[in-house]
Structure formats: structure tokens, C-alpha cells
Amino acid sequence: MTDVVSMCRATWKRLGVPSGARADLESELRADLEAAAADGVDATTFVGGDAAGFAREWSVARGLVRARWRVVGSVVGSATVGFASLAIADGLLRLPWLHPLFDPGQGEGQFWLNVYAGAAPFFVLPVLVSVGLYLWIVRDPLVVRTALVELIASPGIIWASAVAAWWLDGDGGAATRLLWFTVLFALLVGALRAVVVAASRRTGAPAL
Amino acid sequence: MHYMRAVESPTNLWLRGLLDVCLLGALEHGPLYGYEMTRRLAEHGLDVVADASIYPALARIEKAGLISSFREPSAGGPPRKYYRVTDAGATLLDRRRQQWEEFSCAVTKVLKRGDV
């Protein structure tokens, strides 16, 4: 029982449920779990085997998780995770042949070929996998839709990030261009996430 | 896939639309706390209602003003949260009951062999 209550408490805290409301939910849950335990019902069974999902659904139904903060949280979370994974990919893969991928000194055709060849395996995949994992861990109902949209839109956001990075970087080198690309790509991942959430609200699909 | 699940086990699908009114019905005879409500439903044959599913449903109907809640001390444990039907909830329950009778009657007629 303690494990279930702790998991619910942690979920409410993560979702930003105010402390007074958290105490209220916990008190009701604890009292009912005790009654269920007296009947031989296990606490994990009581919450349907998924304490975090149960806690989330309950607090959302109570109106304790503000929609705006849920959206902002998920967008910022996606962008942060996207940035972190890109930064790690950038740090780990700072190979001599990666920076020339963003070198504008080459012919334009070769430059774009290199951007896509470098970005697809080393930037898009880590971002998709890490954002997908993050959304799956926080039990986001739009995880599959978000991953699909980001996969389909990835050529576009690679292009937009590379162009903007080149423009913003001015006379900087390939390393700073790569950093700009990382930041912009992560921001666009977050923006796409916002679009998915907004579209799901309009169509009445499972909301946050 | 979703359709196949509904064909194999339609009870959960039916309950999804009826849980709120079933909870109002369970509360009609007096205040109950959450777990007590699932027991009450199970006693009447609705043992497929998961304990966890009623809390969000209760929250929804409380927000809609159909039920209200209050706390009462329990023997030995933390105070329990009880729910009771409001006047608006009782009115809605009466209306839904009548609608359900008409609807279930119609479905029964259609499903009776040889009647259609």
C-alpha cells in the first residue's frame, strides 16, 4: 500500500497538484485502500495495476492539473529532452568528419546532402527515441502521434534548423553552427509537439 | 482492433457511458465512500467496475454539481470522504432512469428472436 501511495504522491507532485489538494487526494486514497485491504484487495490491484496512470487521471478529472501547464510542461519537456539528446549526440559524435557536414564552404548540393546524411542518423533518431521514451515514461496519450509527426516533419525541420543556424551564425565556425542547429532543432521539436497537442484538442482525440 | 475488443467484451464499452449514472444510482440510498461504491455496484452484478475507474468519474460528477462530498471520521483509520447526491443529481438520475428504461426496452425488443 505504501508503494502505491508513494507513487501517486510523486505523480501528483510532478504534475504540479497544489500541496493541499495532494494531501486531500492522498487522505481519501489511503482511507479507501485501508478499507479495501480489510477485504483482502491488494493496493496495486485496487489502482488497476498502474498507480501513476490512476493518480494522473484522477487529478486531471478533479481539475487540479491546469491544462495550460500540462501543455507547456509537455512541450518544454519534449524540447529539453530533444536538446539533451542532441547535445549528447553532438558531444559524443564530435568526430572530425561531422563538423564539415555543416561547412558552407562546400558546394550547395554537397552541403545539403551532408546535412541530411549527418542529421538523419545522428540527430533525428536520438531525438525521436528520447522524446518518445520521455513521453512514454510520463504516460502521454499522444506519444505515437507525436513520434509519427516528428518523423514525417524531420526533413523539414532539419532544413529549417540548418538554414536558420547558418544565417544566425554569421561568420562563426562549424562548431557554433552545430550548436545553433542543435538549439533550433530542439525548439522545433517542441513546437511540433505543441501543434500535435493543439490538433488533438480540436479533433477531440485523447487530450493531455 | 478497437471494434474487435468491443465485440469480445462489450460490457466495459457499455459501462463507459453508464458509469456516472450507475454511481448516482448507488448513492441514491445514502452517502457512500469510494471503495464502498464499487462494492455496492459489485453486489448488484457490476463487478466489472474497476475500483480505480470510479474516482475520476466521481470527480467529474462532483464538478458537474451532481454529487457533493464531506468527511467523516473512520474507526481507527484516517477520515473517509463520503459522497452524496445533490438535488440536481437526483433530478438527473430520475430523467436518466426513464430514458434508460425506454432505451433498454427498445433494445430488448429488437434483440428478441423473431420479433424483427
Describe this structure in words.
The complex is a heterodimer of chains A (208) and B (116). Chain A has 2 domains: 60 residues, no CATH class; 137 residues, no CATH class. Chain A is mostly helical and 208 residues long. Chain B has 116 residues and is of the alpha+beta class. Chain B has one domain: Winged helix-like DNA-binding domain superfamily/Winged helix DNA-binding domain (Arc Repressor Mutant, subunit A, Orthogonal Bundle), CATH 1.10.10. Helix content of chain B is 63%, strand content 12%. Chain B is globular. Chain B starts with a helix and ends in a 5-residue tail after the last helix. The model of chain B has no long low-confidence stretch (mean pLDDT 85). The interface between A and B is medium-sized, with 22 and 21 residues.
Sum this structure up briefly.
With 208 residues, chain A is mainly alpha-helical.
- Using the alpha-carbon principal axes, give the shape of chain B: globular
Range of strand content of chain B: 5-15%
Strand content of the residues of chain A, in percent?
A: under 5%
Radius of gyration of chain B: 16 Å
The N- and C-terminal alpha carbons of chain A lie at a distance of 27 Å
Helix content bin of chain A: over 70%
Note the total helix count of chain A.
Answer: 8
**Rg measurement of chain A, Å:** 22 Å
Instruction: Let me know the number of strands of chain A.
Output: 0
Looking at the structure, what is the overall shape of chain A?
Answer: elongated
CATH topology of chain B: Arc Repressor Mutant, subunit A
Tell me the total number of β-strands of chain B.
3
Q: Could you say how many structural domains of chain A there are in total?
A: 2
Main features:
A: 208 residues; 2 domains; 8 helices; 77% helix; 0% strand; elongated; disordered C terminus; B: 116 residues; alpha+beta; Arc Repressor Mutant, subunit A; 3-stranded antiparallel beta sheet; 5 helices; globular
